[in-house]
Amino acid sequence: MRFLKSQSLKPRPISALLTKGGSIRCYVSSCRAVLLPRFGGPEVLELRPDVPVPDLKPNEVLVRARAVSVNPLDTRMRSGYGRSVFEPLLPLILGRDVSGEVAAVGASVKSLTVGQEVFGALHPTAVRGTYADYAILSEDELSPKPASITHVEASAIPFAALTAWRALKCTARITEGQRLLVAGGGGAVGFAAIQLAVAAGCHVTTTCGSQSINRLRAAGAEQAVDYTAEDIEGVIKGKFDAVLDTIGVAETERISINLLNRGGHYMTLQGEAAALSDRYGLPIGLPMATAVLLKKRIQYKYSHGIEYSWIYMRADSEGLHEIQRLSEAGKLNIPVEKTFSITQVREAHEAKDRKQILGKVVLELD
């Protein structure tokens, strides 16, 4: 497969060669991509015209990206979060979500074809991310794009929705009629969780800022509590079968756990594995994080009779296809507040760092 560097920094058409091992060989392969050569502020991001594109493994898909979203994980990684894992691998490419068209497939890929519109998300530890004209994902990390939405809209959905899916469907295993509390429903993961739970027939209560109340109620939350103006413990009545805590500070953990039924599930997005590994190094930090998690699980099991979990996004083909179906039906969306060209990636990250844009930001690739 060949990409030619042009003055406009746009990729030329591609060709591919199948090897005896069943992989797709890329030769003289390069494309435009945003590299992170070192950790720091938005100024460290570098848009380069000729970043190598690796050969495709048999289960991999080459996607011509049309839109990629900016996730909180991207800005945190850029600043040094996860450095214990990623620093030896620099430079790397940020980005998890993507929406675009299939440009090439590995020999074992059966469900997707060249030219098909797709969307999906890479796992959190991927080194070659989606801030590139051509992204590489495994077959189970992709699904046909919902036909009723644009690439920009589609790119905002997968990573956040799959994180919520893992919490609700894989961990808590929510069922119709159960009660769910989402602490911090105004963010992308919280908003996705509300929609997934409503679609499953659950009764949803959420906490959020005042600016999000109407949107979350419209999404199906039966109660939306303004945490900036109301006493959460005084306003929320009854117990819950599951809590997804997207905030994850000590106060929201305490309140959430006290609102759970015995046998319920408390799930937080703020696991300590990366932070402890960054502080003490992987050999010490990772076992320490495991011990912290085990201690909390035992503690809350005996004191409250509940299950305690740290939640991370993982690829889930079944989940992504259900997310695609719900999105196609108009039952799941993540609003996009602003778009930037990929050439403005520094400006996009700066706007998120300064909290000038609270909603979802998407980078477009032409």
UniProtKB/TrEMBL annotation:
SMART domains referenced in this protein's UniProt entry, alphabetically: PKS_ER
InterPro entries per the UniProt record, alphabetical: ADH-like_N, ER, GroES-like_sf, Lipid_raft_assoc_Zn_ADH, NAD(P)-bd_dom_sf
Source taxon at top rank: Eukaryota
SUPFAM superfamilies in UniProt: GroES-like, NAD(P)-binding Rossmann-fold domains
GO molecular function, one term: oxidoreductase activity
A Pfam family assignment: ADH_zinc_N_2
Residue stretches making up the Enoyl reductase (ER) domain: 40-363
Protein name: Alcohol dehydrogenase superfamily, zinc-type
